[in-house]
Amino acid sequence: MSKGLGIAAFVIVLLSVPIPVVGSYLCILGLLLGAGAALGGNKVWPVVVSIVGGINLFFMSPSWAIVMYSKTVRGPGGMPMHTMESTYNGAFFFTLIAVLAPIAIVAMRVVGAQKAQAT
């Protein structure tokens, strides 16, 4: 079951790469499926999904970069304007957690299995 979930997560992440705006949300969906595969016991697919999804979101998605790094300021007449400053908002940390969650789950399961064998 977890192997199929991991493959489905990888397919969704790969399909999200060429899609401009909605692809970022599909990539996050794939990362969540990868976390589910990691909870199911799979080790390979969640790591692959995290690497591909992280590269997609952090380096290949300009629309998601705007969401992660933009800051809303008030312009002339009180109109909201978005500036690209060196600020991190909630979307950045949510993306970071979504990318690192499958790897962290796999690591916790491996350490837990090693401790169970030692005792």
Topology:
Blueprint: H1 2-16, H2 22-40, H3 44-59, H4 62-69, E1 70-74, E2 80-84, H5 90-118
Question: Would you give an account of this structure?
Answer:
Helix content is 73%, strand content 8%. It has one domain. The protein has five helices and two strands. Strands 1-2 form a two-stranded antiparallel sheet. The mean pLDDT is 87. Helix 1 runs antiparallel to helix 2 (22-40) and helix 2 (22-40) runs antiparallel to helix 3 (44-59). The chain is mainly α and 119 residues long.
Strand order of the largest sheet: 1-2
Helix content estimate: over 70%
Order of helices and strands: HHHHEEH
Q: Biggest β-sheet, characterized?
A: 2 strands, antiparallel
Shape type: elongated
| SS summary, helix count | 5
C-alpha-based Rg, rounded: 17 Å
- Number of structural units classed as domains: 1
Tell how many strands the DSSP assignment holds.
2
The average pLDDT score comes to 87
Identify the notable features of this structure and list them briefly.
mainly alpha; 2 strands; two-stranded antiparallel ribbon; single chain
Quick rundown:
The chain has helices at about 1-15, 20-40, 45-60, 60-70, 90-119, and strands spanning about 70-75, 80-85. Helices cover about 75% and strands about 10% of the residues.
